Amino acid sequence: MTKESIDPKVYDLYDEYCHTQMTRRDFFKTASGLVVAGGSALVMAEALLPSYTQAQTISFTDERIKPRYVDYDSPGGSSGKMRGYLVKPAGKGPFPAVLVIHENRGLNPYIEDVGRRFAVEGFLSLAPDGLAPIGGYPGNDDDGKVMQKSLDKEKLLTDMLNSAKFLKNHEESNGKLGATGFCYGGGVVNQLAVTMGADLNAGVPFYGVAPPLENVSKIQTPLMINYAEDDPRVNASQEGYREALKANNKNFAMYTYEGTRHGFHNNSTPRYNEAQAKIAWQRTVLFFKEHLS
Fold first, then answer.
1. Distance between CA atoms of residues 127 and 86, nearest Å
2. Average model confidence (pLDDT) for the chain?
3. Interatomic CA distance for residues 179 and 235, integer angstroms
């Protein structure tokens, strides 16, 4: 089934399923009751579930990179300890560093793959697992989103902040730190830009909610902010964010990618838009090379 053949109502239901406590069973049950053109809504719903194995682009055995899991302290976080997926390029560092922040379900294989993609481009990357203090990503997104929802939001944000500091100060880092993230992670990048000031050297949020507008004045890092065209939940804060950044004379670029939905960079589901994701990725890599080298 192609992404074009999936009815918009099913896409909207999938977005609700991803961002609420709706179970997979209820997702399928609701889909089975939808009347759609071109086939069965239930079949369409099944097609939207992620296929992480097929979506892998860089193998963990790729000779260009050296990946490993690392543990580090996280004072004030969910447990005081954190774990992340650290990937360094083969060869001698130090390297510019990029923090990769997951969606609302923990460190799944897609985010690990993004970390490896950055290492291939010459960056030391760290993808923290916000679920590490309560056992780590459970191997499926359904349980992952329930686990992440159970965490204290401020403590989880502290874990991400401590992950950023750990990476910036890593012995393989050149001391220049960028951060990117997707959905929940995009919102975290916006928050880190507020919290870290000049200690964050570049930020690239993907379809993340804006920080409180009264805090925009605290941002000191250059931002490249990516939005999907059809994403009303996140885009509700876009225009206010743009105006606040302008009013405070911040260094930013903001892109909305035509013909895309929330999650368009994630190549594990039909929401993926290959052409636009490629453009966004190229812009992201160039932006980080400009500000972190």
1. 7
2. 95
3. 20
Residue 112 in tokens = 């690990």
Helix (H/G/I), strand (E/B), else coil: 264: coil
Identity at 193, one-letter amino acid code: A
| Paired strand residues for 65 | 89
Side-chain half-sphere CA neighbours of 138 within 13 A: 12
Domain ranges of the chain: 3-48, 61-292
How much is the CA Rg of the chain, to the nearest whole Å?
Answer: 18
- Architecture per CATH, domain 61-292, reads as 3-Layer(aba) Sandwich (3.40)
Cβ proximity of 103 and 262 under 8 Å = no
- 175-227 pLDDT, tens digit each: 999 999 999 999 999 999 999 999 999 999 999 999 999 999 999 999 999 99
Tokens of 186: 């995009």
